[in-house]
Write a structure and sequence with these properties.
Order of helices and strands: EEEHHEHEHHEEEHHHHEHEHH
Distance between the termini: 35 Å
Bound molecules: 5'-O-[(R)-(carboxyoxy)(hydroxy)phosphoryl]adenosine, zinc ion
Helix content: 40-55%
Shape: globular
Structural class: alpha/beta
Strand order of the largest sheet: 3-2-1-4-5
Radius of gyration: 20 Å
Low-confidence stretches: none
Mean pLDDT: 96
Length: 344
């Protein structure tokens, strides 16, 4: 790759959960490489992510993943301007591997270090394929650990409009998947099975929070699905798993879509984006698109590879921090419960 004088190259590292990832991003929008080593297979046998195994695998894979990212981008470490790294939220042991690695590289190669919030990374994934997208816009973040409605006021400027009171949307997908015997990670498996089912077969609840209509709650829905399965078992009725998957998924999608569009209308933004692992759900994307069209809003979503955990999104968010002059010192630490819009 030929680097022009004004080009800004970010090497990004992401190790907050069970993907060891590195990427090179040019000028905040062009992904030159995006390497992901997924540990999913390792954790599947345990039915979920085992933190210690995740950390151990990160430490083993992080160097080869970074080397591959630089090689695929055809960039030398010399040409990199800054190292961006996820420093929270996430599993502390997993985060520490990425943070220590980023600090070591930045120190050794005399590069700027930029700590990035994982969710701000998810939101920024929308900039990669929508070159025209600029703030302000409203973003629904739905992942394994988070369900948030975030108003992106400007680059790096966020206001949380709504959040989940209990389970995250992805967590509900994972728990329901386990209950119907689909295994981990549940989201993609429920998504696939739901295509064979009837979404109107079973009526599951769509929770509303009385004191904040923008907040979410998914634990009641999860319990309703578990109750339904128990009742079927007690009555000796055979469960149609595809119908359960489709009906459950429809309930989640209705809640996510209704909340997002209602909040966008009230705030007065006409751009709506989605992000996080659940944003790769095919039916959610379809329903959001329809709802946005109906309400004269433009709908944005990343490709599935940029919805689930990756380092390219961290490189994008890191770029917008870097050009504002934000940088971190050698005391940068992992913060497992880091809040959106907050710097350590
Ligand atoms: O963003 P992500 O990769 O990791 C976190 O930061 O949590 O999200 C993972 C979550 C998991 O709960 C997974 O089941 C869910 O996203 N997910 C999906 C789909 N693909 C992944 N949920 C619904 N439909 C999908 N197609
Ligand atoms: Zn994530």
């Amino acid at each position: 790759m030929e680097k022009k004088k004004d080009d800004v190259l970010i090497l990004a590292i992401e190790t907050s959960c069970d993907e060891t990832a590195a990427a090179v991003v040019k000028n905040g929008r062009d992904v030159l490489s995006n390497v992901i080593y997924t540990q999913i297979k390792l954790h599947t046998v345990f039915g979920g992510v085992v933190p210690e195994i995740a950390s151990r695998k990160h430490i083993e894979k992080i160097n080869p993943v970074i080397e591959t990212a630089l090689k695929e981008a055809d960039v030398t470490l010399d040409e990199i301007d800054a190292i961006a790294v996820t420093y929270g939220p996430g599993l502390v042991g997993a985060l520490l591997v990425g943070v220590a690695e980023a600090k070591a590289i930045a120190y050794g190669a005399k590069k700027t270090l930029v700590g990035v919030h994982h969710i701000e990374g998810h939101i920024s994934a929308n900039y990669i394929e929508h070159k025209e997208l600029e703030p302000p816009f409203l973003c629904l973040v739905a992942s394994g650990g988070h369900s948030h409605l975030v108003l992106v006021k400007d680059y790096g400027e966020y206001e949380i409009i709504g959040r989940t009171r209990d389970d995250a949307a992805g967590e509900a997908f994972d728990k329901v998947a386990r209950a119907i015997g689909l295994g981990y990670p549940g989201g993609p498996k429920v998504d696939k099975l739901a295509r064979e089912g009837d979404k109107n077969a079973i009526t599951f609840p769509r929770a509303k929070i009385s004191d904040n209509p923008d907040d979410f709650s998914f634990s009641g829905l999860k319990s309703a699905v578990l109750n339904y399965l128990n009742q079927c078992e007690m009555k000796g009725v055979e469960v149609n798993k595809a119908d359960v998957a489709a009906s459950f998924q429809q309930s989640v999608i209705d809640v996510l879509t209704d909340h997002t569009v209602a909040a966008a209308k009230r705030i007065g933004v006409d751009k709506v984006a989605i992000a996080g692992g659940v944003a790769s759900n095919s039916s959610l994307r379809e329903q959001m698109r329809e709802a946005c069209e109906k309400n004269h809003m433009t709908f944005y979503h990343p490709s599935p590879v940029y919805c689930t955990d990756n380092a390219a999104m961290i490189g994008v968010a890191g770029y917008y921090e870097y050009i504002k002059g934000v940088s971190d010192g050698w005391d940068l630490n992992a913060i497992p419960n880091l809040k959106i819009g907050e710097r350590k």
